Amino acid sequence: MDILIGFPEGMALADNLSARTGLALYPVALHRFPDGESLVRLEAAPDRAIIVRSLDQPNDKLVELHFLAGALRERGCKELTLVAPYLAYMRQDMEFRPGEVVSQRIMGRWLGGLFDRIITVDPHLHRTHDLGEVFPGGRSAALSAGPLLGAWARAQGATAQAWVVLGPDEESEHLVRGAAEAAGIQGIVGLKVRRGDHDVSVGLPEGTDLSGRTVLFVDDIISSGSTLIDAAKAAYAHGAARVLAATVHAVFPMDRMAAFNAAGIDTVVSADGIAHPTNQIGLSDLIGECLRQL
User: Fold this and answer.
1) Same fold for the domain at 2-143 and the one at 146-278?
2) Phosphoribosyltransferase domain: which residues (predicted)?
């Protein structure tokens, strides 16, 4: 028996994937004890299972995921696939200061020991160029939502004469390229300088002229929103008439929208890998096709 398993906070995506793949969906029940411990409950003993859970706010989620994966193995599950549209702890890929833990490497060993396959979307990688370096052996797939962001822009009326896609730095280049090609518009990659979690500046290539154009900012994640706000300032300084934003993973609190609006960003949309009020771009077809090929 093959089944799909969803956690409470991500049931909308799990429901869509169930409809896309035809797999029966089994919901996980969670209980939190007063001392903070989690109780995980699932009435199923499948031969193969696909667990769907984005790993934003990861610490509790990872423990619960480990409990579930361990229980399914005890029940005889022969193949476990994790669909984690957002994959946690990928940014720390080296020891920047003496004694820092390289979380990417350790997370790779941890999740790689629990699951036979891991599927994610636009993981937040820096110096690691391929997710296969994190999960060796051809057991992982890193999908890109760039074309989906571009399709959203095209649905909003994007044209080559009036719109531009802007990414904050070279790490966003694949998103910019995918979105720009799908929308049929120009793509520009900026230069981001990060001095702290909330201290970021974004510069644009010399000679950039955005006069009268709509700028679609794209990035893999919007958390504090500092990068987005600074990119909007740079775009307006180069003549932009309007700035919108589309991200794969939205983790910012909605009260940040006031700051975005104040910076001249009138629309922020996201993909639905992480449930968020800005979700407008569905990932189920992208992920479902990957599951079909596997």
Assistant:
1) yes
2) 161-250
Nearest to 275 by CA among 148, 69, 85: 85
| Eight-state DSSP code of residue 16 | H
Domain 2-143 - what CATH class? Answer: alpha beta
Residue 193: the pLDDT is 66
CA distance 270 to 195: 26
What residue spans of 129-189 are helical by DSSP H?
A: 146-155, 173-183
Give pLDDT tens digits for 254-267: 999 999 999 999 99
Cα distance between residue 65 and residue 115, in whole Å: 10
What's the pLDDT score for residue 126? 76
Q: Which fold has domain 146-278?
A: Rossmann fold (3.40.50)
Which pLDDT belongs to residue 194?
60
Chain segment 44-93, per-residue pLDDT in tens: 999 999 999 999 999 999 999 999 999 999 999 999 999 999 999 998 88
Domain ranges of the chain: 2-143, 146-278
Residue 192 has pLDDT above 80, yes or no: no
> 97: which residues sit within 8 A by CB, 6+ positions away?
none
Provide DSSP, 44-59. ---SEEEEE---SSHH
Measure the CA–CA gap between 151 and 142, rounded to whole angstroms.
19
CA distance linking residue 252 with residue 276, whole number of Å: 9
Identify the top-confidence range among 37-51, 96-110, 116-130. Answer: 37-51
| Distance of alpha carbon 184 from alpha carbon 28, whole angstroms | 42
Are the CB atoms for 140 and 106 separated by under 8 Å? no
